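REVIEWER CHECKLIST
Item 1: Sequence provided? yes
Item 2: Single chain? yes
Item 3: Sequence as submitted:
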Amino acid sequence: MRKIQTPFFITLLQIMIFCSCQPDKEKDDPEYLLQPFSTTQTQCFDIGTGDAIMLTGKAGTKIWFERNFFNLGEDQNVTLVLREFYDFRELLFHRINTITDDNRLLRSSGVVFLDLIDEKGASVSLRKNQRIPIHFPDNRLAGHQILYADAKSPGDIRWKLEESLYVSIIAFDTEYRIDMPKTIPRDSLSRYHEIAYEKIGYPIMSDKLKWINIDAFVEPDGYLDVEVEISGKTCDYYTFYVLYKGINSFISYQKASEDLFLSEIPIVRNTRLLVVGQRDDVFYFGETVLKRNTKRVLIQTKPIGEDALREQF
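Item 4: Structure as written out by the authors:
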């Protein structure tokens, strides 16, 4: 029986080259009160004028860069920017919601942000019909879909499903009579009997950069419109988090104190509604449980320390 090989770019030399990056823009933004709790770092790979290189993120994401994938000149210096969010709490801290652009709830297996920038900091696009190999660690793609977003900030993300997902495998080439990389639609994998990929996973061949999400869909029990009243010291703005017990799913809302109406909230059995505000450098926190017939809730907020607030998530 012919031995199945590991996908081509996983076996190549893995090189990590870091350069300094600008701090995350949302760190000082009042819409991202929990972002200081995050340990996710922006990773920058100084590719320079290199032609082909394997890049490996700290959490195990692998990207195979080739200059001819992109709209680049031969002598144009570039840097690849990567952020990996494989810890669900990191999604919460950055308000990377697990909801689609048509309000379908998702269960996350991880998110990455990927961008290629030139010396002036401008994004460089992929060439037409070109795809870049990306391999996620721990076989996270198994049983999940790929969704994309091109939002300016994490809190604005609403995911869009990739309808035609392509992956890379090693397959026998009848012309050259050797095993070679092959790009195929994911739904045709069964024809290649690549059992080994069930354990190690396979790279996607992505024709998009920026925000990439590995998710599965969750069917809610229903949807709610809820009017919220807050008892306690008033903050100018509040951030609401809808959390689901036992599911890596959440939705967040940024609301001014005079507008606390939340619409079309997906409900899945034990659904918690948490609220966080800040005034005079003091955090205020409260929570309640949402049920299928909930229409109005009163939440009492109280001062809370940073460590205690972090533990609520």
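Item 5: Key structural point noted by reviewer: DSSP finds three helices and 21 strands in the chain.
Item 6: Recommendation: ____
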